Amino acid sequence: MKKKLLAGAITLLSVATLVACSNSSQGADLISMKGDVITEHQFYEEVKNNPTAQQILLNMTIQKVFEKQYGSEVSDKEVEDAVAEEQKRYGDSYQIVLSRAGMTAESRKAQIRTSKLVEYAVKKAAEAELTDENYKKAYDEYTPEVTAQVIKLDSEDKAKEVLAKAQESGADFAQLAKDNSTDEKTKANGGEITFDSASTELPDVVKKAAFALNVDGISDVITAPGTQAYSNSFYIVKLIKKTEKSSNWEDYKEKLKTVILTQKQNDATFVQGVISKELQAANIKVKDQAFQNIFTQYIQSDTTTQTTTTSAATETTTTAAETTTTSSN
């Protein structure tokens, strides 16, 4: 979450400086010294090729376009609720997190509002993808609910030790979960959890391993990426019950609808396409050559189009995708 908070951060100082630069040929003096000054224009010329400054301008443009198009669709209450949830999550450290991200409470609130606007536009576009063809494709990839007992551990050696005990004749898997699992949500219930392929409670690799088991089957130790960088979690799964999959995809229509919409909202390419369509409809023109690269993947400039590097495209696409999810994660 902290990384997402940092991505595309817009500081009030940076925004004010960039906007002010266009007001005159040199702008006001920012710094004075004996025999010289640094003007807004000089500062602008110095920083405009900086990737962070370019990202700020892109974010400002997206904010203005989406506010004009969808501003009435996002209420102040939605934004306030998202801010309150974020404050609750971070507690007393919230202001410190904002400060480290180069934001104030007001600039973060504005960023959340932009996130909500883009999120609305992406959802609206995703609803056009609810075709029978896409429903059937989602159905083919869908696995209905299973019930399993799951033991989560932080050490592979400990996981192997627990697995050996679980494989012993007459072993009580539920008790092993209660005694050893680090998953506070399920351990008290003997690790029992019900989920389908669209659920997000477990890593995909764990769900896949569970779906492959027969009833009463026990998996090997499953390694899944942890919540922290360069860390792993280790799982042991015992399947308790399987649900027979209906041959009629319409029996799962509501579930499949959620699957399709979620996939589209998490698809960076799809999000980029939505943003591109809105920027082009707003007739955005890039007036300074320095900013063409950051806008190229969204709009075509009237002047010679420059080739966007792979790294720049990846960074911008990631930021756009994160914009739609920051406030909800």
TrEMBL record:
Annotated keywords: Cell membrane, Isomerase, Lipoprotein, Membrane, Palmitate, Rotamase, Signal
Gene Ontology cellular component terms for the protein in this record: plasma membrane
InterPro entries the UniProt entry points to: Foldase_PrsA, PPIase_dom_sf, PPIase_PpiC, PrsA_foldase, Trigger_fact/SurA_dom_sf
Region ranges (Disordered): 306-329
Residue span(s) of domain PpiC: 143-241
Family to which the UniProt record says this protein belongs: Belongs to the PrsA family.
Protein name: Foldase protein PrsA
